[in-house]
Amino acid sequence: MRIPKSHPRYESLMAREALVEGVKEGIVVRQGLIAHGRGEAFDYLVGEVSIEPAVEAEYAAAGRLLRAKHPVISVNGNVAALSAKETVEVAKAVGATIEVNIFHRTEERVQRIEGRLKSAGAEVVLGLDPDAGIEGLDHPRGLCAKAGIYSADVVLVPLEDGDRAKALKDMGKVVLTIDLNPLSRTSRVSDVTIVDNITRCMPKLARFATELRDDDERVDRILSEFDNRKNLSDVLNHIARRLGELESDSLD
User: Number of C-alpha atoms within 13 angstroms, CB side, residue 195?
Assistant: First the structure.
């Protein structure tokens, strides 16, 4: 389907098309379309832009990744379909390992996601041969690589399941997430929650990491000032204000 760039919702429609193609290619499962639709609903509430709290969280996440000894980026089907190239750029910017981790797991699907990431420039992608487990999880997302998620100190888990985020926290890891729902379990349990669309967020993460790489003093300041609970509260306040404004506009 050809979508003209003049369409007011061009970016959103292109993301939908990318996910539909991902289903056809065996990268995305149909349940992933439902998850994306839920995220889109929250994106409407935010205003389909990267709001100030999101940018603050993106800087904090970039700082955390730069300070990590062994950062890992966890990738599922939706992430691979929407932001494979940008994920690889973030990984290169912070020296992170990339690992495929999916709930609806088959070897073929892991291979297809791995192939998408390698086509986007990744040299090594873990996840096909898990040799460790995340404590407390008895489903496929508990499978992981000892050289990847299991031994990571900081894990970026975009579009995450709440139970795994908590399990990673219980293992003592710093958890960074990208989640448009500020009320989700993942958002509440993570150390840094970026309430932004992944297609807007990942390019910023790569850019911010490059910007901060040689500025230790600024990274120190960003990390010392960032408060995830306050940031989520700021997001909710933004949504409340925006809804009030929209209501006023509709009554005029």
Answer: 28
Phi, psi for residue 194 in degrees, rounded to 5:
-100, 110
Residue 214 has pLDDT above 60, yes or no: yes
Q: Which residue has the tokens 């990590």?
A: 68
Position of tokens 């390698």?
118
Give the residue extent of every domain in the chain.
52-236
For residues 178 and 194, give the distance between their C-alpha atoms in angstroms, rounded to a whole number.
5
Mean pLDDT, rounded, for 172-190: 96
Measure the CA–CA gap between 186 and 23, rounded to whole angstroms. Answer: 25
Nearest one of 32, 66, 53, 70 to 154, comparing CA atoms: 70
**Distance from C-alpha of 24 to C-alpha of 35, rounded to nearest angstrom:** 17
Q: What is the pLDDT of residue 226?
A: 98
- Which residue type sits at 224? S
The structure tokens 């495929």 sit at: 100
Architecture of domain 52-236: 3-Layer(aba) Sandwich (3.40)
What pLDDT, on a 0 to 100 scale, did the predictor assign at position 109?
A: 93
Nearest to 65 by CA among 158, 142, 136: 158
State the Cα–Cα distance between residues 241 and 176, nearest whole angstrom.
Answer: 26
Give me the mean pLDDT over the 31-39 stretch: 82
What does residue 213 show for φ and ψ, rounded to 5 degrees? -55, -40
